[in-house]
Amino acid sequence: MSRRAVVIGAGLAGMLAAAALSDAGADEVIVLDRDELPDGPEHRRGLPQGHHAHLLMPGGLDAMEELLPGVDPRGRLLAAGAHEVSLSSGMLALTSEGWLRRWRRAGPAMLTCTRPLLDWVIRTAVLEHAPVEIRRAAVTGLTGSAGRVRGVRVAARGGENRHAIRDEELDADLVVDASGRGTRVVTWLDGLGLDGIRERTVDSGLVNATRLYRVPEGAERFPLTIVQANPFVSRPARSAMVMPVEGGRWLVSCGGSRGGEPPADPEGFLRYMLDLPDPIVGRLVSGAEPLTDIHLSRSTSNVRRYLEKAPRWPDGFVALGDALATFNPAYGHGMSVAAFGARVLGRELNGVAGDLGAPGLARRVQRGAARVAEAAWSMAVSQDVLYPGVRGGAPTAADRVVSAYTRRVTRAATGSYPAASALWGVTGLRTSPARVFHPATVLATLAGSPLPPSTRPPMTPDEQKVLERLDRTGV
């Protein structure tokens, strides 16, 4: 008997899920997407955050390599122009507690590139190595019952009136919703009689403003530079980052929460960066050639759908990636969590010898995906609720205790390698947040930084010369 899986959404979460399904032995994997997918690393409508900064954290890259054995996603991305950035030595990062030092010891590394490049490289790799078919179609609902999903309804054109749209059904043994921020999963489940799904939205009102620049000659090796938002000063979040991407370009992104939003005009954009606690990002880009207009995005809220807590869950259906949990993109965790969810799917399928319709499989996958999303959700929400004007939450007493301790860990990490290592593990999604409560980390935190705080970015002499040469601001 043929075993068919249908995946809704051809973004990163959908293609990684398709890879997991194919590797587990599905005879047919069909990916449905309402967009016309580009033939190369180009932007598409269905990705509202596509123009802005995306970081592929070490933990997410680990999951991708497990999902794509023999494909070498890291090598493919680097060959396509992505950059590898060491968390220990490859960044200039100003935290709420001061500048992080750069260590000579090797540390975990993340990859930086534009989101269209990453999506295109992964999609191409999956299609080359797995029998996956992509169809352009808009899914309008699920078929089946509250006990088992049997497939999807899709909107199709044709018949006597070629402009008319009608619903057609596509049967499947397993349906995966990876349709992203715009998912209609709660409505679809309600249509099967599964109502009462709890949702939570925490919205800091963050606005992202992003522009691409040509990397100036001589600045090709300048490190990724970030001035992070400070949630502890009772003011709107304000941040900026310049990171290397493919094609000899810098992607420069500013973010501001409600009341501190960045502007879209070039002069205001530069002034915004210069007015941050350190003007380094503005000074850098003041001497660089802009290549694009400034793109704004307000699709930044944290949204959690507690699907795993539903009293009943149908066999034959799971939701992964942003369809399950959507994060403020400032924290750079969304792509990694999508990879974690697909990895859960693959491991659970291997446990049932690839039986897509195995009783209880879908519920186990849904609960496992929720567990791996929870750490990133907690990190994002516990910080966002501290900003003025946030909608959907307020800090609890427990939040304030955890925030105070996390702040102390960060302060120690400005000059303590053990504390910094714990911070890299958690923010890089290689270890759980419990790592900061490990005895070694607690001791390092209580001891504090053995080095005096750095009041200036920890640049090498050559990097200092690059900054001075590019600076057109006189700041």
Q: Could you characterize the architecture of this molecule?
A:
This protein has helices at residues 12-23, 58-67, 73-79, 115-129, 185-191, 266-274, 280-285, 334-351, 361-384, 397-413, 417-427, 439-447, 461-470; strands spanning 4-8, 28-33, 55-56, 83-86, 91-95, 98-99, 109-112, 132-136, 138-144, 149-157, 165-171, 174-177, 199-202, 207-214, 224-227, 238-245, 249-256, 289-290, 295-297, 302-305, 317-319, 325-326. Among the domains are: 4-54 and 114-201 and 300-382, 3-Layer(bba) Sandwich (FAD/NAD(P)-binding domain); 207-299 and 464-470, Alpha-Beta Plaits (2-Layer Sandwich), CATH 3.30.70. Strands 5, 6, 14, 15, 16, 17, 18 and 19 form an eight-stranded mixed β-sheet that branches. A five-stranded parallel β-sheet has the order 8-2-1-12-21. A hairpin with a 3-residue loop joins strand 16 (238-245) and strand 17. It starts with a strand and ends in a 5-residue tail after the last helix. Helix 1 (12-23) runs parallel beside helix 8 (334-351), helix 2 (58-67) packs parallel to helix 8 (334-351) and helix 8 (334-351) runs antiparallel to helix 9. The mean pLDDT is 93. 33% of the residues lie in helices and 22% in strands. It comes from Streptomyces incanus. Residues 462-475 have a biased composition (Basic and acidic residues). Residues 450-460 have a biased composition (Pro residues).
- Measure the end-to-end span: 70 Å
Give helix % range: 25-40%
Q: Helical segment tally?
A: 13
What fold name stands as the CATH topology of the domain at 4-54 and 114-201 and 300-382? FAD/NAD(P)-binding domain
Give the class-level CATH name of the domain at 4-54 and 114-201 and 300-382: Alpha Beta
Tell me the number of strands.
22
> What is the CA-atom radius of gyration, in angstroms?
23 Å
Low-confidence stretches: none
Please identify which CATH superfamily of the domain at 4-54 and 114-201 and 300-382 we are dealing with: FAD/NAD(P)-binding domain
Question: How does the overall form come out from the CA principal axes?
Answer: globular
Proportion in β-strands: 15-25%
Mean pLDDT: 93
Task: Examine the secondary-structure arrangement and name the CATH architecture of the domain at 4-54 and 114-201 and 300-382.
Answer: 3-Layer(bba) Sandwich
The SS-based structural class is alpha+beta
- Largest β sheet strand count, sense and barrel closure: 8 strands, mixed
